[in-house]
Amino acid sequence: MKIAGIVLAGGLSSRMGQDKAQLLLDQVTLLSRSVTLLSSLNLTQVFVSGNYQGFDCITDVEASLGPVGGIHACVESLFLEYDALFILPVDMPLIREDECFELLHLFEQYPQGVFYEEATFPLILPLTKQLKNYLAEVLTYPEKKQRSLYRLIKTVKLQPVKYPASNKIRFQNSNTLEQWETCIKSYHAQNETEE
Q1: Mean pLDDT calculated for residue range 144-157
Q2: Does residue 11 or residue 53 have the better pLDDT?
Q3: Residue of 90, 103, 91 whose CA lies nearest to 43
Q4: For 68-115, what is each residue's pLDDT tens digit?
Q5: Does pLDDT of 143 surpass 80?
Q6: Residue 101: which residues within 8 A CB-CB, separation 6 or more?
Q7: In sequence order, which residues have a C-beta less than 8 Å from that of residue 157 and are 6 or more positions away?
Q8: Is residue 138 helix, strand or coil?
Q9: How far is 98 from 78, CA to CA, in rounded Å?
């Protein structure tokens, strides 16, 4: 099975006030960290949903439509060549190989697609005609709530799975400066615990 890794990095980062993909954690950008993580999973290839020099990028067909807009562009671009997408947002820098490999393992059990329920991401999305047609239609809807990720997951019936409570910290998002500061503290605390 050919699975493409996708780093969702095409958002406006409006709540952060600066490009989240270029934030540095231990002198490495969040974009590079995410690409490196997905590359370690032995996926067929890794792409970036966005526009960044030096990476294999897929730009949105329709701008400013959020995660679903980025997923739509990736589905349109990769539909004929790949079987599924492993999607990770750029603003989840504490996630590790363990959780990603677990999701790949669960995908064998749930071939309809699978995601971590409490966090939504990462998720694995099979490339089906139903998905392709749904995304093409939903992007024409005028209201943002009609184009939500939650609605996409419900429509294509992805299997929700839980992660261990002890791993909750790794699923933190960094959408705001406050969340980013919390993420940095968590990252250093995690490293100290492991030393």
Answers
A1: 85
A2: 53
A3: 103
A4: 889 999 999 999 999 999 999 999 999 999 999 999 999 999 999 999
A5: no
A6: 41
A7: 112, 113
A8: helix
A9: 26
Task: Compute CA 119 distance to the chain's CA centroid, rounded to the nearest angstrom.
Answer: 11
Pairing of strands 45-49, 123-126: unpaired
> Please, are residues 103 and 122 in contact by the beta-carbon 8 Å criterion?
yes
- Asked whether the predicted pLDDT for residue 63 surpasses 80, the reply is no
Tell me if residue 153 falls in helix, strand or coil. helix
Residue 177 CB coordination number (10 Å): 12
Question: Side chain identity at 164, as an amino acid letter?
Answer: P
Separation of alpha carbons 154 and 156, rounded Å: 6
Looking at residue 122, what DSSP letter applies? S
If you average pLDDT over residues 172-181, what whole number do you get?
A: 86
Residue 185 CA to residue 69 CA, distance in Å, equals 32
Domain 3-194 has CATH 3.40.50.10680: no
Number of Cβ atoms within 10 Å of the Cβ of 167: 17
Length of the chain: 195
Q: What does the alpha-carbon distance between residue 142 and residue 128 come to, in Å, rounded to a whole number?
A: 24
* DSSP code of residue 163: P
**For residues 116 and 121, what is the distance between their CA atoms, to the nearest angstrom?**
6
